[in-house]
């Protein structure tokens, strides 16, 4: 009985197969013939022949195969729809989301954090980015080994042509969905590019994208904790840097938004904090300024101001010749108090008064706002109506006619070449004035700036610093008390300041611990100590300090009395702190006491000799003489 079952099943299947096969082509013919209009009858015949051959060879019913595939497709389609519906319900009710715009600082912090995640670095969908570091960021291994190239017999010099080839790209998650883990929790990441359709309904991708973070659960607290960690990690690496921002004219990526967009400021630089001691200014004035800003930024100050009805604002005016340290002090103050600097140029042609007000209103509570060289912005009140107006072109032409009124009352027509020349010159002057008066003034007016600085709707809590080279050209309303609370004067370098500059320039080499210890162990009997630093042998000569002082003073006299100074052979030797003080004093003595040289000029001179303090001392006399001649002749070029 069991042996007969396979035979019975096979016979039954064969009968069913033959019946179905014989009936199927006719059904297909009846169904497709009206649709095809009988034009492709030969194709139908070929199809029936192939269907018959396949059915006989496989002993299977093709109709059943097609039906099975149809059922599987339907099940898959229904399953996908059910999964999509269930996933949508879970995403809507059981997941938390946080979106980050690409024009927010947190976006850059997050991208940097994601690029360091191992799981995301192994993702199959990545975006490669060229690493562009500033001069102040930490160097990589490929930056620490530059190539030395010979230059036409002049020696070997650094060559950085192969640095870009050695610099590896940075890989970050590509636009799309990604997944990573942090503190044992799984997070989903989705990078979405913003796009819009133009007039021809063609999608246009903007220079903007949104970063969407999500996690399972009805609370976004895990995402908030992650974002706090990302910010702390970023600023922990940048705690010793000052952030510099400028207005973003793109308005956060939105067309026609200008400066009025939500994200009106963009990051332009991260600079190392500048020590206050590097600013050339009287110590008492530094202390007074620091105490004033510290009192203003105290957490209890806003309550004190509010109880007395005083606006919470503080303004400072730094004025003095160019190169005296006005901007340097601004950066040093921002570094001392850990504030960001927001730099605004009033000469920006696209900046309007409405934009300026929006920029001031979008400032954070505590920051430094820097308005540089406000004297060049042309901020002044319009002339009073009582001011005598220039003569018109018609009056000039009348003057050429020789009337007595226009000829000094002589009543004679002079008709000389001098009169014609003066009249032509006056005509050009009047035409120039009228052309200037007819041109509509663009940019920021004085009233617009005053309203932005301390108007009714102006932002409070910021530190406003204005710098100028010519304070006498400023309008009184701009620097009145209440807008400018303290004025700091900067002057050219005195001899004491020149000495401080010299010490600061060369004491940096003495901060190396190995050099300091070697200098302290030097014998005082004039012997020579041989040390090795950076792979080179350096001979340190340390004679008696008294003898050295006498020699330096004698050498200084020779330098002062000689126009052609020979550079000492030992200029590359290490210098002790005591010797540095003596050389700095001698250097300062050669700087004119009339304070005609700015600190920036002295610094530029020393930078050309930044490793040779003895050479700087030897050449300062000729340099000072050249600077004096340059200033006397009002030339802008120097031979030193």
From TrEMBL:
Bilayer topology: Single-pass membrane protein
Polar residues biased stretches: 525-547
Keyword Transmembrane helix tagged: yes
Bias-annotated ranges (Gly residues): 399-412
Boundaries of every BCS1 N-terminal domain copy: 67-279
Bias kind Basic and acidic residues: ranges: 382-397
Sequence segments annotated as region (Disordered): 378-424, 524-548
Reactions that this protein is recorded to catalyse: ATP + H2O = ADP + phosphate + H(+)
Recorded GO MF terms: ATP binding; ATP hydrolysis activity
Domain of life: Eukaryota
Any one Pfam family match given in the protein's UniProt record, by short name: BCS1_N
InterPro entries found in the cross-reference section: AAA+_ATPase, AAA_lid_BCS1, ATPase_AAA_core, ATPase_AAA_CS, BCS1_N, Mitochondrial_chaperone_BCS1, P-loop_NTPase
Major place of residence: mitochondrion
Keywords: ATP-binding, Hydrolase, Membrane, Mitochondrion, Mitochondrion inner membrane, Nucleotide-binding, Transmembrane, Transmembrane helix
GO CC list: mitochondrial inner membrane
Domain AAA+ ATPase, residue spans: 312-494
Localization terms from the record: Mitochondrion inner membrane
Biased composition annotated in UniProt, kind: Low complexity: 413-423
SMART domains referenced in this protein's UniProt entry, alphabetically: AAA, BCS1_N
Listed PANTHER family: BCS1 AAA-TYPE ATPASE
Protein family per UniProt: Belongs to the AAA ATPase family. BCS1 subfamily.
Protein name per Swiss-Prot or TrEMBL: P-loop containing nucleoside triphosphate hydrolase protein
